[in-house]
Specification:
With about 120 residues, the chain is α/β, with parallel strands linked by helices. It has one domain: Leucine-rich repeat, LRR (right-handed beta-alpha superhelix). Helices cover about 30% and strands about 10% of the residues. A 5-stranded parallel β-sheet has the order 1-2-3-4-5, with no helix packed on it. β4, α4 and β5 form a beta-alpha-beta unit. α3 packs parallel to α4. The N and C termini lie far apart (about 55 Å).
Length: about 120
């Protein structure tokens, strides 16, 4: 069973998962790459927040507030390179994440300007 495999696990070619599959994958010990997902239900993100290790969701271009809250509880590196925007509320929630977060395409200039004043 893949969830019992140790080491990195990349399932980038898959574009959707059942809740049960996500529950099993959340128990995987090692890096988990689900970069084929372009969207994911909130309840599945909550399940993935229990994963310990690097979690890569690089094909998501946006998050819901509930997803940001769930991901803030994740323990390990969090890769969200595909995100193109974050609300202030989502950024605040993700700031509670303990570990590195990788974001490539977010323009934080407006948010930074707000806090400079």
């Amino acid at each position: 069973m893949l969830s019992k495999k140790e080491g990195g696990l990349s399932l980038a070619g898959l574009t959707s998962f059942t809740d049960n599959q996500i529950k099993l994958l959340s128990k995987h010990k090692g890096d988990l790459s689900l970069n084929g997902l372009t969207s994911i239900p909130d309840n599945q993100v909550e399940l993935l927040s229990e994963h310990e290790g690097e979690l890569s969701l690089d094909n998501l271009s946006s998050l819901t507030d509930n997803q940001a809250k769930s991901l803030s509880k994740h323990k390990g590196k969090l890769s969200l390179h595909g995100l193109t925007s974050l609300t202030e509320k989502q950024a605040e929630m993700l700031s509670k994440h303990k570990g590195n977060i990788f974001l490539n395409y977010i323009d934080f200039s407006k948010l930074i300007e707000k806090y400079k004043k």
